[in-house]
Amino acid sequence: MDRVTYLASKSAAVIFTKSSCCMCHSMKALFYELGASPAIHEVDHDVDMERALKRLGCNPATPAVFIGGKYVGSARDVISLHVDGSLKQKLIEASAIWL
């Protein structure tokens, strides 16, 4: 868990993904479209990292999105934030994007 927390705090926006996950790809595309360049950590071959994400409450383990070092949620949560307009504000507050 310490490794996940450390990696999540190193960048304004962080996404833990799997290369075979279509929702992970969608999350990355959404962040890029909003002007953010999130740190991407692939957990395809890292079972310990995936377990740590689940222990932190990430369910499913991927995509797991962190903004400003805080767990924001999975794809469903991030899409909800985007629809209600608060995702962009969170990214601005974390200095992941600038206006």
How does this model look, in words?
- The relative contact order is 0.22.
- The mean pLDDT is 93.
- Helix 2 (22-33) links the parallel strand 1 and strand 2.
- The protein contains 5 helices and 4 strands.
- The chain is an alpha+beta fold and 99 residues long.
- Helix content is 46%, strand content 17%.
- It is globular.
- The chain has a 4-stranded mixed β-sheet, sandwiched between helices.
Q: Brief overview, please?
A:
This protein is α+β, with helices and mostly antiparallel strands and 99 residues long. The protein has helices at residues 2-9, 22-33, 47-55, 75-83, 86-93, and strands at 13-17, 39-42, 64-67, 70-73. 46% of the residues lie in helices and 17% in strands.
Strand content: 15-25%
User: What average pLDDT do the residues reach?
Assistant: 93
Number of strands: 4
Q: What's the arrangement of strands in the largest beta sheet?
A: 2-1-3-4
Describe the global form.
globular
What are the secondary-structure elements, in order, as H or E? HEHEHEEHH
Largest sheet: 4 strands, mixed
Radius of gyration, in angstroms, nearest whole number: 12 Å
Distance between the amino and carboxyl termini: 34 Å
Q: State the share of residues found in helices, binned by percent.
A: 40-55%
Our count of helices gives 5
Poorly predicted tracts of residues: none
Q: How are the secondary structure elements laid out?
A:
Blueprint: H1 2-9, E1 13-17, H2 22-33, E2 39-42, H3 47-55, E3 64-67, E4 70-73, H4 75-83, H5 86-93
Parallel strand pairs: 1-2
Antiparallel strand pairs: 1-3, 3-4
